[in-house]
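new request in #modeling-help
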Amino acid sequence: MREPDFNDLAARLMQSGIAPRHAHRTVQEIRDHYDDLVDAALADGATSQTARRQAAHELGRIEDLVSEMSARRELKTWAFRYPRAAMVVYPLACLAVLPAAPVNAGIANAPLLARWGASLLAAGLFTGALLLVLQLLILFG
Amino acid sequence: MAKSNPPFMSGVPELLLLRLLDNREMYGYELVRSIKAATGEAISLGEGVIYPVLHSLERNGSLKARRKPVGGRTRVYYSLTKQGRGRLQDLQDDWRRIQQGIETALESPGHA
């Protein structure tokens, strides 16, 4: 039996609707379980290759784990459990947070905005001072 | 996952896991080994199958999970909650009733 591919297990679980916290923890647990099986086989005197093959066999197919997890509705994200409600709520939520987008952009670019504001203020003060001088020259010049 | 359980085994992994965790907290690999030992290897669950069951039991409040560093690895240990003890009691009662019914039927098949 081929060595299990744990790398894309989390992605596959999440694609089938499993909540990220369950998906990531399952990967960690399955990986540890596999390592424990390998260690046990090595302790029994198996060669490294045999131990890995035996562990993979004991653990079983990753596809079966994905289908076992997917069959459990309670482990899925809200959007997968209530797809119709999600189709209504998500667009509304997006519209609701739309006005906050410029504020978020401002917070994200705060130093740039501060420099821009300071430049604008300096330019305003300079122009104001220039106009004041000109006005005084007209009045008393 | 390596061995599949027949359909009548539905609910058995849950009962066994709750029963074992009633004694002490354990992690997945430990639980699989304990089930094999406790049932004299009569019930040998597919090893990967217990994780969906454990996560479901945690989700419904029967178990709680915590990470604990052991021997260079961070294990996820499961323990029974008060709600889990209630669930265990219910499952044990159901199981004994079914067992009794089946025994009665096996002893006197004519009345079954």
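bot summary: Chain A has two domains: 9-97, 110-140.
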